[in-house]
Description:
The chain has 297 residues and is an alpha/beta fold. It has helices at 2-11, 23-28, 48-72, 85-93, 113-130, 139-142, 168-174, 196-206, 225-240, 256-262, 278-285; strands spanning 15-18, 33-36, 76-79, 97-102, 133-136, 152-154, 183-187, 214-218, 247-251, 265-268, 290-292. The strands form 3 sheets. It has a 5-stranded parallel beta sheet with strand order 9-8-7-10-11, sandwiched between helices. Strands 3-4-5-6 form a 4-stranded parallel beta sheet. A two-stranded parallel sheet has the order 1-2.
Amino acid sequence: xxxxxxxxxxxxxxxxxxxxxxxxxxxxxxxxxxxxxxxxxxxxxxxxxxxxxxxxxxxxxxxxxxxxxxxxxxxxxxxxxxxxxxxxxxxxxxxxxxxxxxxxxxxxxxxxxxxxxxxxxxxxxxxxxxxxxxxxxxxxxxxxxxxxxxxxxxxxxxxxxxxxxxxxxxxxxxxxxxxxxxxxxxxxxxxxxxxxxxxxxxxxxxxxxxxxxxxxxxxxxxxxxxxxxxxxxxxxxxxxxxxxxxxxxxxxxxxxxxxxxxxxxxxxxxxxxxxxxxxxxxxxxxxxxxxxxxxxx
Length: 297
């Protein structure tokens, strides 16, 4: 969303509300003020306590957003995810025009159960009814809101030419991948849905035929118990399969062009339906072949 918000900043002032100060806040400070507010992306309840905790938190977030809107008097609120409905509701209650950018599929293709399926349908309905306009990252995402009385537009995320200007040799040296042949790369948040474990299992099979194959895994877990636990499982899995010496967990990568230049093949081993495969477009822009699971947009 940053390029679009930069264009808005050229025509007026932009303030970004973030749940925590960090790299995202630093990025948006280049075009305006970044303010920390207490909110979280909506998650499905994981137990009986969550059934009561999530609605209470949601109500508190609506109050926080309403208070901030009254203080700042925005002409337009852009909600960067359908999973922050508290911001959308607050803006509508305050009578401020609202655009919701949706980069999520509510049905991810995983076995999510009837309760979560109903929750996704309700969230889709709420967004479609309350937003003045909905902008989606792919046609697959947009179809979740059709038919709709509100404008629903697809704007695919852009990828610039800088991904083709990486220093692969430097990246390989920094992460002990100098002799990799081939070097496979998996990029994305460390979550079970993104399937980094699938890539590790595949590595064990590939190594029988390609002894020098290496796998680099770039990304960090989101800050929830499931993803943190999954992050801890991945090195254990590599050890059990005796490929831990062939896996490089490189964490957050600032210069993605270097990573792509270091890779021979980029892999998407996801088991969930992605709303838009940005990594695929980036890899192709960098001139790297891409192998993907047959799921998602």
